[in-house]
């Protein structure tokens, strides 16, 4: 046997192709198994019809636009508020500066004046208001009516006579108050005093009615309201000056007899009571403070055995907030006011005009 035939027989060539084919078949099968494991999971995608997608997108778009608009308007409003706040703040600071400058100037004016001279000037001006009333109470007609009424003071005729006198004389003093509170008739010294009355330094103590409804100017106080200013200056004018001088003049009158004196005192006290009612009614609706803005004092009417009137001041505060305790309240005048509505309306209008006159000079 030759070498070539031996080699051929032992190489097993007849068997080799089938073995390769079998092996390839197994590898192919294995590849198929492995490739089957690499397949992606079968997700089910839910399709959205186009007619449903469009409204949803439109709604979302409008919602976003609305949000942007709201944000824009908010920013715009804030910018405007900031601008207005700064302008108001600057204006208030300017007003405060002007008030301080005027306060300093008024103090200098008062300090350079003689105290007795100042009091004399103001008293003379007040006398121009109250003297016609005092003269009316000294006429022969008034004296005769006083004597007649004393015979039967509780009769209907006597009561009606006193009411007529009261209405007439109340009108008279209010007319004079209105006339002499016009700017060209008010002394400059009184104008200065009226302005200074707005400051806490001039009001260490105040009536409860006033202290519960307003603050006074201090070094750092921004301008207070118009009605609060009116309340302060009218309290100074009516209750600190006018009424005190009216009482003094009534005590210095020459009376013909006790009937005349009693009738005069009745009229004077009744007019004071009406002024207090007009004042309280005008300012009663002002918002009240949680605590009084300053220390308190109380005015009280005192009548001597000789029927002379005086006002005393103490710390026993009337919780009914009367500016002068002892004057007749509104309840006492109800009958008079109900029967004379035109008169009541007239004196209310005159009182408001007086307050406006006083405030216009500040």
UniProtKB/TrEMBL annotation:
Residues 1-23 are annotated as: Disordered. Keywords: Membrane, Transmembrane, Transmembrane helix. The chain crosses the membrane at residues 61-79. This is Transmembrane protein. It comes from Paramecium pentaurelia. The lineage of its organism: Eukaryota, Sar, Alveolata, Ciliophora, Intramacronucleata.
């Amino acid at each position: 046997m030759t070498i070539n035939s031996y080699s051929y027989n032992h190489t097993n060539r007849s068997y080799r192709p089938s073995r390769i084919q079998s092996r390839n078949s197994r590898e192919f099968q294995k590849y198929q198994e492995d490739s089957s494991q690499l397949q992606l999971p079968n997700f089910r995608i839910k399709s959205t019809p186009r007619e449903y997608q469009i409204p949803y997108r439109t709604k979302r778009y409008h919602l976003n636009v609305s949000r942007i608009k709201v944000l824009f308007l908010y920013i715009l409003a804030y910018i405007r508020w900031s601008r207005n706040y700064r302008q108001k703040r600057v204006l208030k600071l300017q007003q405060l500066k002007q008030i301080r400058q005027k306060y300093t100037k008024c103090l200098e004016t008062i300090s350079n004046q003689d105290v007795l001279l100042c009091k004399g000037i103001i008293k003379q001006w007040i006398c121009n208001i109250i003297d016609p009333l005092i003269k009316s109470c000294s006429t022969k007609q008034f004296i005769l009516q006083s004597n007649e009424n004393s015979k039967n003071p509780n009769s209907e005729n006597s009561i009606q006579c006193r009411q007529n006198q009261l209405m007439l004389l109340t009108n008279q003093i209010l007319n004079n108050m209105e006339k002499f509170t016009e700017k060209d008739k008010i002394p400059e010294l009184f104008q200065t005093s009226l302005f200074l009355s707005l400051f806490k330094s001039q009001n260490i103590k105040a009536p409860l009615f006033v202290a519960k409804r307003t603050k006074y100017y201090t070094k750092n106080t921004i301008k207070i309201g118009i009605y609060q200013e009116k309340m302060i200056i009218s309290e100074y004018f009516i209750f600190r000056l006018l009424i005190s001088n009216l009482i003094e003049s009534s005590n210095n009158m020459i009376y013909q007899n006790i009937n005349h004196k009693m009738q005069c005192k009745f009229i004077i006290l009744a007019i004071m009571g009406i002024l207090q009612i007009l004042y309280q009614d005008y300012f009663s609706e002002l918002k009240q403070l949680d605590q009084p803005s300053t220390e308190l004092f109380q005015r009280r009417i005192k009548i001597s055995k000789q029927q002379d009137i005086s006002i005393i001041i103490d710390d026993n505060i009337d919780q009914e907030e009367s500016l002068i305790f002892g004057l007749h309240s509104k309840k006492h005048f109800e009958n008079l006011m109900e029967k004379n509505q035109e008169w009541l309306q007239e004196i209310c209008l005159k009182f408001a005009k007086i307050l406006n006159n006083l405030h216009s000079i500040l």
